[in-house]
Write a structure and sequence with these properties.
Radius of gyration: 21 Å
Helix content: 25-40%
Distance between the termini: 65 Å
Order of helices and strands: HEEEHEHEEEHEEHHEHEHHHHH
Bound molecules: iron/sulfur cluster
Strand content: 15-25%
Shape: globular
Number of helices: 12
Largest sheet: 4 strands, antiparallel
């Protein structure tokens, strides 16, 4: 069984095997499976909800890895998906990756447009890469473009401020501070500003995945998105909070009745707060929400 070749044949663009002890895990090997994707051309005028290309790609990669791991286990190999392992500090110690001021890792052939599936195995698979002792610094030279383009102001001279990153708030299930909520634009999940502006990335060429706001606010069933982006990202309260903010940001007056209903009836505090913020935003353009 040639695990590296098998995973490449499945569609992973790069597979690296690391010694487990040097990565601080119990298993003998950590296997990093890099899955590339095509970035989407930004569409800030789109009035429905936009999904960043990373998330469907990560779901595809997850499924490929899951199927392969099952196959390996049936063949007697002690291997598992280990996506709970935080690999940022490991990536920052790998010489073949560059590091951006925006905290992202960059592959020379793919820029930051990749997802990593993480496998842990107890098997003497040949090691292909060795982490350096220390994390290397950002490779950005004098460039500060992502700092200028970040809508939240998360990339600051002295480092990265997680609480100013839009993605942080999209994931944590809470209502973001209002100034950040208004800067979400039409993003349902993911923010591309610090990647799209980056000279270390190839130009975006894909078409964004767009979900109608009506589907989200009127008849959301998480199974419809779970298949595309994974169950955790498709959780109803997270999606509905973000969808409410998009309705306000994109001046969707046609969503007023749905926002009003969610503001009053949702069982989630974050959704109620997001609906309230969106209604206030829409009311800057329309007198009270009388339909
Ligand atoms: S993901 Fe968006 S908000 Fe977060 S650092 Fe990058 S540009 Fe800023
Ligand atoms: S935009 Fe410039 S500063 Fe930001 S990660 Fe890319 S190269 Fe580095």
């Amino acid at each position: 069984m040639n695990i590296v070749q098998d995973l490449r044949d499945l569609g992973f663009l790069r597979v690296e095997v690391l010694d487990g002890a040097s990565c601080g895990i119990q298993e003998t090997r950590l296997i990093l499976c890099f899955f590339g994707y095509e970035a989407d051309i930004p569409c800030p005028e789109e009035r429905d909800a936009v999904i960043h290309a990373y998330y469907p790609a990560s779901q595809t990669a997850y499924r490929l890895a899951r199927t392969y791991v099952q196959h390996c286990r049936e063949a007697g190999l002690d291997i598992r998906q280990a996506n709970e392992i935080h690999i940022k500090s490991i990536l920052n110690r790998l010489a073949f990756l560059r590091r951006g001021r925006n905290t992202l890792a960059y592959l020379p052939e793919q820029g930051s447009r990749f997802h990593v599936q993480i496998l842990a195995a107890n098997a003497e698979i040949p090691v292909t890469a060795e982490p350096e002792a220390e994390e290397h610094p950002a490779d950005c030279g004098s460039c500060t473009r992502c700092r200028q383009f970040c809508p939240g102001g998360a990339i600051q001279e002295n480092g990265f401020v997680r609480e100013r990153c839009l993605r942080y708030w999209m994931m944590n299930g809470k209502m973001p501070p209002e100034d950040l909520a208004f800067r979400m634009g039409n993003r349902l999940i993911g923010c591309d500003a610090c990647e799209n502006c980056c000279p270390m990335n190839p130009p975006a060429t894909g078409r964004a995945c767009v979900v109608p706001l009506k589907t989200l606010l009127q008849e959301y069933d998480d199974t419809c998105l779970a298949d595309k982006i994974g169950h955790n990202y498709a959780l109803p309260n997270r999606v509905l909070t973000q969808a409410c903010l998009i309705a306000g940001n994109m001046n969707r007056q046609d969503m007023l009745p749905d926002l009003k209903r969610l503001e009053q009836e949702s069982g989630s505090e974050a959704v109620r707060q997001a609906a309230h913020a969106a209604l206030r935003r829409l009311n800057e353009d329309a007198d009270k929400y009388i339909i």
